[in-house]
């Protein structure tokens, strides 16, 4: 499912709500310090808003992230043949010391000497 404008909006609202929860928690702590009260817990509305924001963000991320791949490693390797496992292009070396050791070495195919 492609990420629609609605899902991005939901994700943005979730993050804004989570930032508001953090600001409310900091505001509550500063209120307790000013009134010299002990901190026991956050107010219930802040905790509820934090959980709702968390679930809204999870919903938005799952729809914006796109399709997930399988975790199984064999799912990606099912279509490969045994001969292709030894053929690793990242180990190809085209610039090596052979041209310096042999004066008649030609690095280009089709060069006539």
TrEMBL record:
It is found in: Endoplasmic reticulum membrane; Golgi apparatus membrane; Early endosome membrane. The keyword NADP does not apply. It comes from Zophobas morio. It is a multi-pass membrane protein. The lineage of its organism: Eukaryota, Metazoa, Ecdysozoa, Arthropoda, Hexapoda. Belongs to the membrane magnesium transporter (TC 1.A.67) family. Its main location: endoplasmic reticulum. Residues 1-26 form the signal peptide. GO terms for cellular component: early endosome membrane; EMC complex; Golgi membrane; plasma membrane. Coiled coil: none annotated. GO terms for molecular function: inorganic cation transmembrane transporter activity. Pfam families: MMgT. Keywords: Endoplasmic reticulum, Endosome, Golgi apparatus, Magnesium, Membrane, Signal, Transmembrane, Transmembrane helix, Transport. The chain crosses the membrane at residues 40-62. This is Membrane magnesium transporter. InterPro entries: MMgT.
């Amino acid at each position: 499912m492609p990420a629609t404008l609605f899902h991005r909006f939901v994700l943005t609202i979730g993050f804004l709500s989570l930032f508001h929860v953090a600001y409310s928690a900091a505001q509550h702590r500063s209120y307790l310090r000013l009134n010299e009260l002990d901190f026991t817990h956050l107010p219930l509305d802040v905790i509820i808003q934090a959980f709702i924001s968390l679930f809204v963000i999870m919903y938005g991320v799952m729809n914006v992230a796109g399709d997930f791949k399988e975790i199984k490693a064999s799912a990606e390797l099912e279509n490969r043949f045994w001969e292709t496992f030894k053929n690793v292009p990242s180990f190809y070396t085209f610039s090596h010391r052979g041209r310096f050791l042999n004066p008649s070495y030609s690095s280009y195919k089709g060069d006539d000497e």
